[in-house]
Amino acid sequence: MTGRPDRSRAALARDAALARVSRTRRRVIAGSAALTAGFAALVSAVAPGKTLTSKPAGRAEAATATHSTSSSSSSAIPPMPPPAKPGDLGLQAPDQAPSSVPDQSQPQSIPSQPPPSSSSSGGGGGVVSGGS
Amino acid sequence: MAPELQDTRRLEAFGTAAVVAVVDPSRGRLSRAVAAVERTVAEFDRACSRFRDDSELSWLNASAGAVVRVGPVLLEAVGAALRAARLTGGDVDPTVGEALVALGYDRDFGELERSAPRHTQPVASLPGWRTVQLDAGRSTIRTAPGVILDLGATAKALAADRAAERAFEAAGCGVLVSFGGDLAMVGDAPSEGWRVRVTDDHRAGQDAPGQWIALRSGGLATSSVAVRRWRTRSGVAHHLVDPSTALPAGGMWRTASVTAASCLDANIASTAAIIRGAGAAEWLSELGLPSRLVSVDGTVLHLGWPAEGDDLPAAPVAGAGAQAACSVSGLGGQAAGSVSGAGGEAAGSVSGAGGQAARSVSGAGGQAARA
Lengths: 132, 371
Known about the structure:
heterodimer; A: 132 residues; 3 helices; 47% helix; B: 371 residues; alpha+beta; T-fold; 3-stranded antiparallel sheet; 33% helix
């Protein structure tokens, strides 16, 4: 008769200990998860876009390209340069090449030496292009 | 259908003979166009003249390396000059000012022509266009201490483009603006195109040896070592300085005329052609820029340019592709590259067809200046 209560108390003590172990384990897991999340948030805020290991250039470019399309609002990405204007690309050829003038036997006359002040010649026979 | 009437007015601008022409002179269009051109000339002269003490350029040249805030006209002009340098590999360089001053070109050219020959001491080298820092966002320019910018090669052509645009807006019809033979055309051209006489000197008149051509749009520029020459105690100098030597360019071409989409691009190419010498034909052909190159012996090479009606004899050419180089459609680099020694003997000792070889040639102007 006396051994049964003893066994019951021992079982209760065992169950209580197991419960404490279980609670402790859950708290450790939750704490670890919280710490991990907090640390990750801290690192992403302090050093965005950084990595601890070097990546091959191609992968890095691909990652950058993916990032720039998925989150264009990030301030860490430099803005794209404006599109080049045609004049920046090189010397531009004319729309139309010069053509020959077949008959200039009687060109309309414009004085070769202009007067010092402005004057109207009228008629408009041609313009001279030469070194200046 | 384009109108048939046209009218012109002549005036002086940038020390050269200027022409303003409109397709339709009715209702005061010509006067409005001329007024727009004169405003543009005044703005560019005030901003870009090397010979005005009160110009922005003079202020910049005296800045001794300081960062200078400049107005939009000078900012655009210096930007155009730096673009010219970049596109020509430095053959057209705005930092030639110091070399020009050392050669005696330190005053308005009319005054220089009248003055007695002076002793000159050419500079050893140029600082180079890469020493010029332009910040378009802040409208500032910084040059290295002692650098003297000369925008003559490009600012006049840029002014012609801007003046033609404004004249077109003011007149409401097709216009042509010429500053010293550098032409810009905007709007409808006359039905048969703008008639242009291409020759060595823009003041020589329509009877001077050359060629009549017709143009419809874009720009035409002619550079020549036959003009803007002056005497020094060492000989004769001219205004086209080779940045690689800091001396007047001496090469195989006396005059280069180029058409392009704008007067500025045409001027960049024609100036660079004189500097490049033998390498110019291939370079222009690769760019697809119609060109007329007159060698120092008076023969002429047409590249994508009509040969008909030219007073000057065709340049001697060698090789199977030579005829293609001289024909209207011969814009291929291979054909132009087959030209050899066009005027080379007259120029002196052209060896090979490369640009470097041409730079070693002592032409009439350069040789005299070095003597």
